[in-house]
């Protein structure tokens, strides 16, 4: 698959929209991070959403400059594996909800709530699938085998 960024092999978009706010194209890069990672858990226990900032910063450092040079708005959409959404992800979902509510003639609050519900269910289904297919190898002292 060709890259959005000319002369590059990077793929900065999970979702590419050729027209976004102001008529500019946008690359939406969805990233899921777990606040339960060994290197994140201490901070995540004290600062709500701290993992989201780490995930967004990592994606911005990888793709923002290249997208800017190509005339593409880059928006990292970070979500925690446990369900928290970054402010930029919430803003994008809110904007899509407004457009969807106008198009369908439904109340905005209902449309936004429903969209977040569907995304949360998709996230948890993905989590369940990962956990169900993972076969950790634990020592006998941990898993109770004799």
Structure annotation, total helices: 5
The termini sit apart by 50 Å
Q: What is Rg?
A: 19 Å
Query: How many distinct folded domains?
Result: 1
By secondary-structure content and strand pairing, the structural class works out as alpha+beta
- Residue-averaged pLDDT: 89
Characteristic key phrases:
146 residues; alpha+beta; three-stranded mixed β-sheet; 3 strands; globular
Notes on the protein architecture:
With 146 residues, this protein is an alpha+beta fold. The protein has one domain. Helices cover 51% and strands 13% of the residues. It is built from 5 helices and 3 strands. It has helices spanning 41-46, 50-69, 87-104, 108-133, 140-143; strands at 15-17, 26-33, 73-80. Strands 1-2-3 form a 3-stranded mixed sheet. Helix 3 packs across helix 4 (108-133). The radius of gyration is 19 Å and the shape is globular. The mean pLDDT is 89.
């Amino acid at each position: 698959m060709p890259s959005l960024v000319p002369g590059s092999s990077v793929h900065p978009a999970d979702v590419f929209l050729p027209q976004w706010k102001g008529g500019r194209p946008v690359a939406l890069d969805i990233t899921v991070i777990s606040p339960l990672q060994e290197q994140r858990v201490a901070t995540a226990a004290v600062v709500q959403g701290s993992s989201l900032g780490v995930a967004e910063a990592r994606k911005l450092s990888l793709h923002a400059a290249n997208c800017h040079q190509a005339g593409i708005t880059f928006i990292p959409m970070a979500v925690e594996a446990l369900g928290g959404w970054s402010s930029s992800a919430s803003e994008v979902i809110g904007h899509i909800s407004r457009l969807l509510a106008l198009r369908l003639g439904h109340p905005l609050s209902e449309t936004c709530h429903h969209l977040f519900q569907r995304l949360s269910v998709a996230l948890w289904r993905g989590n369940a699938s990962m956990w169900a297919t993972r076969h950790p190898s634990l020592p006998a002292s941990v898993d109770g085998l004799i």
